[in-house]
Amino acid sequence: MSSPTPASLEVSGLAYAYPDGHQALFGVDLTVERGERVALLGPNGAGKTTLVLHLNGILDAGAGTVRVAGLPVAKRNLAEIRRRVGIVFQDPDDQLFMPTVREDVAFGPAASGLRGPELEERVHSALKQVGMEEYANRPPHHLSFGQRRRVAVATVLAMEPEILVLDEPSSNLDPASRRELADILRSLDVTVLMVTHDLPYALELCPRAVILSDGVIAADDRTQDLLGDEDLMRAHRLELPFGFDPRSVTMGA
């Protein structure tokens, strides 16, 4: 019998204090299976960014372990971990720095040694996944904000990651761009961890949600159930838009 496929992400007992003594995480346990889409929710200062920065080794665990597809996040594995964990920043201009869209998307795979037709195919495939293949020769700064965000996603997809981590993916998007990005994210065959304050977007895209509060996992359940628990939401400073009823939304897969 073949061994079972390891979870995309396994976090166990993760604790972390910054050099100034501020304790940001107090023993986080989280498992995300292959192909899951999970929303990471919580108030400002809850430790969400600190947790994300452990996933690709930018921060080194003070205590506990982090594994990506069964591989420990450790110095000896950092090159492979950073290929497997793709982070899409809130501001696409933090990710796009080359003269053309094509060069931005090619940058990561080329740095990993991909060349020639294989590189071109990887770039074309990533741009096609986000509906931006027609813009390959455009300068990124000539694109709309929503288009730049889609290209930023493509730069990560070109690395064929195990996990796509999205930091506030819907921020500053107009309604049409917001919907287009949601359609793209639903179509991807990749594990998604979405850090967001946009609770309706989390409900639309992520069947499961985790609330991180004061450095610990305070809740982990179906997104619809978490958002419908008024006492839980109030206790962790999470607020739905006025008049929005999560129980009235038909959940997608």
From TrEMBL:
Q: Where in the cell is it found?
A: Cell membrane
Q: Is Transport one of the keywords UniProt gives this record?
A: yes
Cite the ABC transporter domain residue spans from the record: 9-239
Named from the GO MF annotations, one term is: ATP hydrolysis activity
Q: Which Gene3D superfamilies match?
A: P-loop containing nucleotide triphosphate hydrolases
UniProt topology in membrane: Peripheral membrane protein
- Entry keywords, A to Z: ATP-binding, Cell membrane, Membrane, Nucleotide-binding, Translocase, Transport
Principal localisation: membrane
Q: Name one GO biological process term.
A: cobalt ion transport
What does the function comment of this entry state? Answer: Part of an ABC transporter complex. Responsible for energy coupling to the transport system. Probably part of an ABC transporter complex. Responsible for energy coupling to the transport system.
Q: Give the protein name, as stated in the record.
A: ABC transporter ATP-binding protein
Species the sequence originates in:
Streptomyces finlayi
Traced from the root, the source organism's taxonomic lineage reads:
Bacteria, Bacillati, Actinomycetota, Actinomycetes, Kitasatosporales
